[in-house]
Design brief:
Strand order of the largest sheet: 2-1-3-4
Distance between the termini: 61 Å
Helix content: 55-70%
Bound molecules: iron/sulfur cluster
Shape: globular
Number of strands: 8
Radius of gyration: 21 Å
Length: 418
Amino acid sequence: MSDIPFTKEMKKDYTILLPNMSPIHFDLMIEAARLNGYKALLLDNSGPQVIQEGLKYVHNDMCYPALIVIGQMIDYIKSGKVDANKCAVGITQTGGGCRASNYYYLLKKALERAGYPQIPVISLNLKGMNTNPGLAITPTLIFQLLSGLIYGDLLMTLSHQVRPYEINKGDTDAVVKKWSDYLKNCYRNNKGYFWSHMDKNLASISDDFANIPVNREEKHVKVGVVGEIYMKYAPVGNNNLEKFLENEGCEVMMPPFLGFILYGISNGIRDYEFYGGFKRHMYHAFATKILMPVLKKFEKKIDKAIKRHEEFIAPASIDELEELGKLVINTGCKMGEGWLLTAEMIELIKKGYGNIVCTQPFGCLPNHIVAKGMVRPIKELYPESNIVPIDYDPSATKVNQENRIKLMLAVARENLEN
Ligand code: SF4
């Protein structure tokens, strides 16, 4: 495999194609990247041709998210909308034991096979793997990206809790748009992510959602969505699951993105405690212990903003989730979404969202274990829970997936009426 670096010179005029995992979050985070001089572009192409391109260049027993993301990139490059000699592609690399560590190499190989060996592949990671001279992950950039993630979490959480009850259809979407536009403009002007700006903005966002006229007498089935991170959030991966559930009259709760980031980072401590390692692992664990309290401050900001209004439900903190997870799973279980996914299911049940859709991609053994594999122990603890794992793979049809969810919703509606 060729190794084409992304150089400092390329930064000026190369377009970096990035997969869009969650539109509400990534639309903001991309502005933070642009503020730092990267010509970043989020991909929104979808359809059967994306899957076909993925199947052509990625082995079909690889995880489904890899297949979609790589298919989406190659489909976009082939469409001619971007100059193949003036573009790079970016992909996350976790560096853990999961297959996401290898997406980077899969993408390189796929590009080469598709006839684009000249395209540099940028690994997006915090572990110093496969560095590129043109990419500088500075503390400021990390802070800006985190702020985008937090705004995204708040907009997503509150819009889910208001949209089904709004009296005037479209009010919630208007608030989401108003704030997305405002925040994007802030980033363009190098504002909005400072500590005090965030407090002010988060409080105002919460107030704006609370001011939307609603009828909370209406009864809606409450559905929690958990799963592998890409399948849970990406509409292109889960066939617009969130929209489908809302069209079925449900109130959706999706655990925040920040929880996954905190889970991933805090695993540095668990790795060393459970498995030991070399000096570098010890230093990593030590650095993580220092970093975690800072990151938890972001979590507290969302919590504070949501709790300004008693009708809103705030997500559990990473510490609370860890305790919930320990009821049924060991926290040493940390491949894929690991114990976090199990803990999120318990949290959702405790908060009244016991009807749960668990998005499971093909090829994802870790999440089959911590999701489908944990349904039974969770049901023993919470018999009222109503969990349905849904498989996503290239041959699964949307109709089949929706029918399975409709069966779960039929039980949920019966429970609601009783
Ligand atoms: S969590 Fe699952 S889908 Fe994601 S990289 Fe790991 S095995 Fe693949």
